[in-house]
Amino acid sequence: MTYNTPNYNTKNQPICKICEVAYDRLLLHVNKRHGLNAKEYKAKFGFNPRKGIQSVELQRAMRKAALANYDKVIMQNLIIGGISSRFKEGNIETDKARVRETSRERMTLKWAREKQLKKKSIEQLAAELARKLKNLR
């Protein structure tokens, strides 16, 4: 699929498709001023849903900050912290039957709670109606 690319002004800031004004953090503007979240805005105007829309200067600054904090952030959180969640020899793909079973159990519990709440609500309404009828007499 081919996605549209945002238009940029002379300061390399992306231009809002709704009001034609440029901002460093366009999606923040869209959310605050136009009430659309990033997903909605990107879908409405055909932008890539996996890419951010920000000024070139802001991209550079964010990249510079990430690289400056490489040891604290990337190394600790992603490289070292991710060891426990990586694929290990002998692992198999997700056990679909078990996932289905877990989901089914979770939904069964949810439906039982909803049914109980509905039953309780009906009983409360009936009791309230009985009280009001008694007061009318």
From TrEMBL:
InterPro entries: ROS/MUCR_sf (IPR041920). It comes from the Bacteria. This is ROS/MUCR transcriptional regulator protein. It comes from Pricia antarctica.
